[in-house]
Amino acid sequence: MNRHRNIFLVAFSLLAAALLFASCATSTDDKSTTATTTVTPPATQTLALVPRPQKIADLMKSRGEQDQAMPTLKIVSPAKDAVINGSTVDVKLDLGGDLKGYMPHKDPNTGKGNHIHVILDNQPYEAYYEINEPFELRNVIAGKHTLRVFPSRPWHESYKNDGAFQLVEFTVKGGGDTAKPTTTNSGQTMANNNSSPAPKPTREGKDMASSTAGALDATKPLLTYSRPKGEYKTEDADPIMIDFWLTGAKLKSDGGDYRVRYIVDDDDAKYIDKWEAIWLSGWINGKHSVRLELVDKDNKPVDNGGYNTTTREITVMK
Known about the structure:
Layout: H1 2-36, E1 48-50, H2 54-62, E2 70-77, E3 83-85, E4 89-98, E5 115-120, E6 126-128, E7 135-138, E8 143-152, E9 166-173, E10 182-183, E11 189-191, E12 205-207, E13 222-227, E14 230-233, E15 240-247, E16 259-264, E17 270-272, E18 278-281, E19 286-295, E20 309-317
């Protein structure tokens, strides 16, 4: 009896020792695992103002006098307060002024060139290169609309001379009905989606998102967001330019009372006090929001049809 009890006690002791050893080994392994596991913190973004990139400065030199040009625009169509029946709106412009060789055109090899920024309501601009042909705004919905245009360089920096910026308001009836031809209020056909003309190169244009004009007052200050826009890849992803058009107001360093406030993502607000493009470096990969807002001397927003505060989303892929 005692012999069996001794055997049982020995076996129990061995089992307890084995369990204790296993527990210690697991604890040691856990500690070892915890000690060697590292978590990579998310990248932080610190943006800084930098000079114009050298590649842009070199391009400016190669363009001769073009960057001293003073191009002017006139909106031929749509006319002021025109009523357009249909979903397609033809934009026709006259280019004039002291051009010094400036002419919109897309280089087929690089896909870049001088162009006109065309903005319907407060949508992102579209680039218009071949101004000898109309630019088509397609699928425009019914309602009142605002069209803004101004000339730009291949890297999308706008010309800021008098007469370069133009704005017109017009109304679309029957917008979005692609089965009907587009006509002006005088009955002139602008575009006919049912016709079958002889094949020809596709005209420049854009299928527009749904939007209508804000309650714009042309006598009040107006901020027009231009850049940044869209995707920025490889060498174009840093630095990135902020640019805009300003009418009816002067910024502080230009002798006025206004400022342009910009906010990137959730960063602190910063200000532009001189009307010129700025360049920001330090972007990290991913999506970013950029907000531009016109403010007065008390840093209060200046409203004008909702146009003076605009936020765009861009994507950086280095």
